[in-house]
Amino acid sequence: MSNKLENKIALITGAGRGIGQAIACKLASEGANLVINDLTEEPALETKKLVEDMGRECEIVVGDVTAPDFGDNFIKAAVDRFGTIDIIVNNAGYAWDAIIQKMTDEQFQAMMDVHVTAPFRILRAASEVIRPAAKAENEAGTPVHRKVVNISSISGLYGNPGQIAYSSAKAALIGMTRTMCKEWGRYNVNVNCVTFGFIKTRMTGELGSPETKAQIGDREITMGIHPDMAKGMESIIPLGRGATPEEAADAVYLFCIPESNYISGQIVLAGGGLII
User: Fold this and answer.
1) pTM of the complete model beyond 0.90
2) Which residues of 224-251 are buried (b: 16+ CB within 10 A; e: fewer)?
3) What does the pLDDT read at residue 160?
4) pLDDT tens digit string along 231-248?
5) Residue ranges of domains in the chain, CATH in brackets
6) Is residue 166 flagged as an active site residue?
7) Of 242, 266, 33, 263, which Cα lies nearest the Cα of 145?
8) How far is the C-alpha of 130 from the C-alpha of 99, rounded, in Å?
9) What confidence tens digit (pLDDT) does each residue in 119-171 have?
10) Which listed residue (166, 187, 253, 262) is catalytic?
11) Is the Cβ–Cβ distance between 222 and 208 less than 8 Å?
12) What is the 3-state secondary structure (H, E, C) of the chain?
C-alpha cells in the first residue's frame, strides 16, 4: 500500500458492516487511524479488530447517529483519543420505503433524521475543532487539508419510485455538500459527495431474506429488492454488474487522498456507468 493517509484521523459512521466496514478497512490499509460508529457493539468490534489487525488504532462509538447528542459525542471521542480530525465520512443510513400514499410521517422523518440531520450535527460539532485548528495552521504557514465525504445515492440524483423519503433525504445531502464546500473552503476542507448506484449490500439483497432485515431502535426494517429487479438493474449498467462494497469504498478513498486537495463541492456517481 502507498500509505497516503499515514496517521490521518478518519471518522466513519455506520462502519460495522457493508460499505462502511469496507471504507474503514480501505482507509486503515492506507495508514489512517479510525474512529468508527455502529448502532450496536458487535459489528463495531468486528471492524475494530480488522483495523487493528492492520496495525492501526481504532476507537469505537456505539449508538444511534440520530440521537441529539451523537454528533458532539462522536467528535469528542476523536479529539480525546487522537487530538484532531482529518477525515469525516457520513455513511450511516438505511432505506425505509413506501409509495407516497402509504408513507407515514414517521417514515419520512426517520429518513431525514438519519441521512440529513445526523450529518449536519456531526459537521456542526466538527466545526468547533476544525475552525481554530485551520486558523492556527494558516497563520503558521502550515495549512492542512481536511476531507469530508458525504454518502448519497443515485436515488438522490434521479429519484426512485417507492423512495420519496430516502430520495429526498439523499438529495438534501447533496445540497449540504455544496454549501459546506463554500463555507469551509477557507479552512482548507474539501467537501465532496459520493452517490452510489447498485452496490451489493443488505440494502440490495434478496427481498424477504433474513440478511435484509435491520433492527433500528424498536422497529424491524425490511430492506432488499426482488431478484428479478436486481437482474434488471444490472442489465442496464454499462459495466454489466453491481459493485462490491470494496469498490464502493475505493470511490470514497479517492476523495480522502492528497490528490483531491483541489477538488471540492463535487458529486460523483459510483454506478458502473449508469446514467438514468
Assistant:
1) yes
2) bbeeeebeebbeebeeeebbebebbbbb
3) 92
4) 888 889 999 999 999 999
5) 9-197+245-270 (3.40.50.720), 201-242 (no CATH)
6) yes
7) 263
8) 41
9) 999 999 999 999 999 999 999 999 999 999 999 999 999 999 999 999 999 99
10) 166
11) yes
12) CCCCCCCCEEEECCCCCHHHHHHHHHHHHCCCEEEEEECCHHHHHHHHHHHHHCCCCEEEEECCCCCCCHHHHHHHHHHHHHCCCCEEEECCCCCCCECHHHCCHHHHHHHHHHHHHHHHHHHHHHHHHHHHHHHHHHHCCCCCCEEEEEEEEHHHHHCCCCEHHHHHHHHHHHHHHHHHHHHHHHHCEEEEEEEECCECCHHHCECCCHHHEEEECCEEEECCECHHHHHHHHHCCCCCCCECHHHHHHHHHHCCCHHHCCCCCCEEEECCCCCC
Cell of 231: 437482474
